[in-house]
Amino acid sequence: MSELTLLLIKLAFLAVLWFFVIAAVGVIRTDLFGSRTAPAAPARKAPKPVKPPAKPKKGEPRQMVVVGGPLQGTTIPLAETPITIGRANDATLVVSDDYASSRHARLFPQDGQWIVEDLNSTNGTYLDRTKVTRPTPVPLGVPIRIGKTVIELRK
Amino acid sequence: MSAPGVEPVPLPAKRRMAQLVMLGFAVLIVMGAYAAVGLGIDQKIPSGMLTYGLGLGGFVLAAYLVLARFAPWADPLILPLVTLINGLGLVMIYRLEVGAGGKGGASATSQLLWTAVGVVVFAVTLIVLRDHRSLQRLTYTAGAAGLLLLISPLIPFLGQEINGARIWIGIPGVGQLQPAELAKLALIVFFAGYLVAKRDVLALAGRRLLFIDLPRARDLGPILITWGLSLGVLILQKDLGSSLLIFGTFIAMLYIATQRTSWVLIGILLFVGGAVLAASIFDHVAARVDVFLNPEDPKLFERELGGSAQLLEGLFGMSQGGILGTGLGQGYPGLIPLSFSDFIFAAIGEELGLTGLMALLMIYALLVERGLRTALAARDPFSKLLAGGLSFILAWQVFIIVGGVTNLIPLTGLVTPFMSQGGSALLANWILIALLVRMSDAARKPPPQAIQDEGLTQVFQR
User: Fold this and answer.
1) Which domain holds residue B432?
2) Which of A63, A115, B124, B453 yields a CA-CA distance of 20 to 30 A from B433?
């Protein structure tokens, strides 16, 4: 075994090691660019769509973001299923907040809109500044206040 | 596919395929490393390559299958990263064992055995613990268990003193175990549960002085108790590493829970006070500081126990490695005392060089990043604190040992997670990874279908 071969093996091994690191970063690339990369890939394969499918329908939110309170930074992707918020352990978003009820509020989709409904909570749910008394549609980017937690719907 | 015109709702992808590919890649790298070791030492591919490589591959494939069945939404990177670190550790231990001709304590077979046990424990944790939030109910049980495990080496007959530190317990038939490794996990569960309950009072009460919010004096209880505990570990067991590890993790979790800088400042002040006190009173601490300050002093170099020979040999080894290293199997890492456990980082530095060490640190950093990402995505405070604490302790442990080996901070005996030879640490770290996987599964899972019927809720409305 010549010196040169050993040198080449050594360099190749280091290169492969770094390639692993780069591949690992590639796997988590979606973290940086959000979930948008996921639907964009199949869209490209579709034969000539009538309208650009990568864009969501106008005003249709894709995720719920906690913008204030102890859970700040949490995002929940919006699917077809309703989202419950409260202190109960089975809620989708569990808030530990003395001002929140165990089943505080519910968000559900209806005809392409997301509706917020207060579940008879003690301290109430606020959409922007107004108290939610009956199921109300939530526009994009308008804060919903539940105790100390503030959430928003975003694209 | 969904109906035309309706956008498919984007969900976080499971990334099963990516995980499998990365796992295969990691196992291939490890087998390549075995081959390189053999070629470097005696010019032929070692017979152990297939047994060790396929053994590791089989274990992680089993771990992957359990993960795919019981935690399908888990983060795709955690398992491959751990596999690569664990595998490189195995290769290095194998290399040191061959290099020393089987003498000197390095044993790749026993490490492979412990890896198998670790994978089994990983799988059992995933299968048994379906919802990590049930750990929150065990807050105080975990605290008591952690304390008991921590002090168990002090019990006469059970505890044993090895190399000056009383951190081992002997179990007939199995050998020695370091209960402190498992105690760390129990204590983190306790800290997380405790801080969720108490975070409001720790975060809000107090008054503002100049530019920092000072907590009330009576709220200092928990931090003082933890400080006392870690000092106790330092004094009674002479274990600097665990002491620093426990206190640092508690401070970090306190900061995560309260977002108050004053806790970090108080923690650092208490730590500096404790360290100065310990260094001036206790010989074993003072010796470490001496070695840290003047490693090239001939008197210290020749000292039998607690001298600077090990540290200097490690530094020489890494300087011998330089940027690209000597190549696997072509350096002399066997010259470093304990190069298979505490100083495995220096051994790798000699053979893989700065380039290899940086890749290794990147892999650790990615692992910690995945853990912190899990903490961010978690939906309840207990999971956030637990995931944050577990990832922090991993990063903190790597910092303490790598900092010690490179003489950035005084050397404290700690294992390099997943690399150093040692069963208890490997076991505890595999459990830690199982907990992280379990939490990342819960955090990335799409929201569950609501159970209640539309009509029923209407009844309760007004």
Assistant:
1) 138-461
2) A63
